[in-house]
Every structure is written in structure tokens, then in C-alpha cells.
Amino acid sequence: VSPYDFGYSIVNNAPTQYRSVITNAKATGYSAGPRAYGASGNNLSPGHVAVNPNIIPYGSKLYITSPDGSFVYGYAIASDTGTGLMDGIVDVDLFYESYLESLLNGLRVVNIYILE
Q1: Residue 74's Cα: distance from chain center in Å?
Q2: I need a surface site. Which of 55, 59, 81, 111 has the fewest CB within 10 A?
Q3: 91 burial class (0-12, 13-18, 19+ CB within 10 angstroms)?
Q4: HSE of 38 in the Cβ direction (CA atoms, 13 Å)?
Q5: What is d(CA 34, CA 6) in angstroms, rounded to the nearest whole number?
Q6: pLDDT at position 1, please?
Q7: How far is C-alpha 116 from the geometric centre of its chain's CA atoms?
Q8: What DSSP designation does 76 have?
Q9: Cβ–Cβ under 8 Å, residues 39 and 80
Q10: 24-47: per-residue pLDDT in tens?
């Protein structure tokens, strides 16, 4: 989904180097209108995600994939937050181009690799 490539080597569905990983995290999808900005001040587009900034700081570079590799969001930048993230209901909210795409995401289980 994400257009970003931070140049990390991915082997067996995981980056070979990362700072930490959150396994079996809950991921939902969201979208916003054009020219939307996240809580970090970044312009939102695919590849930007919402997080709890107390756990994953804004600006962190991430790699997000399902544990079995059947779903790959790819590289992402922590740029936004929301109530569900701050309340611990959701671990990451994946930004999509359209509302329909965000609905199709549903609730997924993912591993969030914190690269830097």
C-alpha cells in the first residue's frame, strides 16, 4: 500500500534490522480529505499512519506487515493519532487514499517494526 521505500532489507516478511517490534498489534484503516494534516503536522497520504505517540513517537519510520505475510502495508511514517490509539483500543491506524479502501482494511493483526 505504502509508496515509501526506506531501503531496509526485508527477509521472510520482516526487516533484517530494526529498533523494536510490536507483535500481534491491532490495525485499522482510515482516510481523510485531500490536504489533510496529521497531529505531527505532516500532510497525510498513503504511507502515513496514526499511532499513540507515547509508544511510537511521531516521525518514527516503521514497517508494517501481517505475521504470515498475507498483508503488507509496507514502510510508513508515524504522523497522526486518535482516540482509539490513545485509549489502547487500536495499535496503529493505516492511512488509505479513500474511505472505501480504509473500510476494506477492517481490523487486521500486524507486526509493527520500528526502524528508527
Answers
A1: 8
A2: 59
A3: buried
A4: 26
A5: 24
A6: 87
A7: 14
A8: E
A9: yes
A10: 999 999 999 888 999 999 999 999
